[in-house]
Amino acid sequence: GAGVSQSPSNKVTEKGKDVELRCDPISGHTALYWYRQSLGQGLEFLIYFQGNSAPDKSGLPSDRFSAERTGGSVSTLTIQRTQQEDSAVYLCASSKGQGQGTYEQYFGPGTRLTVT
Amino acid sequence: DAKTTQPNSMESNEEEPVHLPCNHSTISGTDYIHWYRQLPSQGPEYVIHGLTSNVNNRMASLAIAEDRKSSTLILHRATLRDAAVYYCILRAMEYGNKLVFGAGTILRVKS
């Protein structure tokens, strides 16, 4: 079946502009995660959505970052007033549910963001 | 803090088995051991997970030490396609549902 999809695959933006990154999770997956991977920083968690519960925003690096998930499916990660340090690959993942032991996460191919 | 320690890199010959070690001496009784891998220019991919018993699936085997302070991911016959970064991750209550990635092990496979 279809996996997690993300768009765009690449995004180049000027410093100070806002960007929106989109994630389409696997159909029926109730949990959705955003991570980012930058050179020298590895993979880091950003935010997690589970059903109608309040999202876990503990990994968002600043208030310039926000995310929403509409209708329990598609999610959008928004970065306002982008900075050069925001340049990274932004990865979305989804899983069937919560429960740290049992549900593997399926990752999308990522969006490579370059801030010039 | 539910941390893991892995070698920075390993090398294997094609068609030979590979044993990727992971130390997690501070593991608690409810922490699951998960392995993911990341091929070049792709998102991470789930490999296998376990709690106490050894596990096998189509991709690999996971051997867990009796005291659970270490585990080994076993690729039975390495192929060039298995060249990737392998992450050993503890899924701990303190982390909730997020994955906490370390630096992982870079596996190189020689033909």
Characterization of this structure:
The complex is a heterodimer of chains A (116) and B (111). In chain A, the strands form two sheets. In chain A, strands 2, 4, 5, 8, 9 and 10 form a six-stranded mixed sheet that branches. A four-stranded antiparallel sheet of chain A has the order 1-3-7-6, with no helix packed on it. Chain A is built from no helices and ten strands. In chain A, a hairpin with a 3-residue loop joins strand 4 and strand 5. Helices cover 0% and strands 47% of the residues of chain A. A five-stranded mixed sheet of chain B has the order 1-9-8-3-4, with no helix packed on it. Chain B is mostly beta strands. Chain B is globular, with a radius of gyration of 13 Å. Chains A and B meet through strand 4, strand 5, strand 8 and strand 9 of A and strand 4 of B.
Order of helices and strands of chain B: EEEEEEEEE
**Shape summary of chain B:** globular
Global geometry of chain A: globular
The total beta strand count of chain A reads 10
Strand order of the largest sheet of chain B: 1-9-8-3-4
Radius of gyration of chain B: 13 Å
What oligomeric arrangement do these chains adopt? Answer: heterodimer
Gyration radius of chain A, to the nearest Å? 14 Å
Low-confidence stretches of chain A: none
**What distance separates the N and C termini of chain B?**
39 Å
Uncertain runs of chain B = none
Main pleated sheet of chain B: 5 strands, mixed
Summarize it:
The complex is a heterodimer of chains A (116) and B (111). Chain A contains no helices and 10 strands.
